[in-house]
Design a protein that fits this description.
With 171 residues, this protein is mainly α. Helix content is 85%, strand content 0%. The chain has six helices and no strands. The mean pLDDT is 93. Bound molecules: fe (ii) ion (2 copies).
């Protein structure tokens, strides 16, 4: 694939992903009453909003068309956030852990690809991978569950995230 096209895909999918992350956290915050938990989530949300702003800038700078699936991801992510929060504290953080696991991989692969092709973008994807790593570790502190239910929940969230990524790269 041509570098230019691949870079467009990277920006398109990352912008959509960050919007999804924002949606998840907003959905969770709509349900969660626990003060310390919601403070933690609000701080993660702030990071995702920074990430989102960066990719919005890049979208303009690189003249990339956003994914047409944007509104779907936004609502879907919000719904997933609601659902995870309704299921409880463990599921809430299990959701973050699962999403971040996929996203860290995703950013790291992009950074590898971008090396020597676009150093600026490479730096951004590396930095964001580190931020998402912090979120994942924070989530893991909550003992996100080794029981069947939470295991299945995490696997489902991971598959869903991967599916959303695949689609957003292309359309
Ligand atoms: Fe992010
Ligand atoms: Fe994150």
């Amino acid at each position: 694939m041509k570098t230019r096209k691949k870079i467009e895909e990277i920006i398109r999918v990352d912008l959509a992903g960050e919007k999804g992350a924002i949606g998840i956290y907003k959905g969770q915050l709509a349900i969660i009453k626990n003060k310390s938990l919601s403070l933690e989530i609000r701080n993660m949300l702030k990071k995702e909003e920074e990430h989102y702003r960066k990719f919005s800038e890049l979208l303009v700078k690189y003249r990339v068309r956003p994914t047409i699936l944007d509104p779907i991801w936004e609502k879907g992510a919000f719904g997933l956030g609601l659902l995870s929060a309704i299921l409880g504290k463990k599921a809430t953080m299990a959701c973050t852990e699962a999403v971040e696991e996929v996203i860290i991989d995703h950013y790291e692969n992009q950074a590898k690809y971008l090396k020597g092709k676009d150093n600026y973008l490479e730096k951004i994807t590396k930095k964001f991978a580190d931020d998402e790593k912090d979120h994942m570790l924070q989530a893991k502190n909550y003992d996100t569950g080794s029981d069947v239910f939470h295991k299945v929940f995490k696997l489902s969230v991971k598959s869903l995230s991967k599916f959303a990524i695949k689609l957003s790269e292309k359309i």
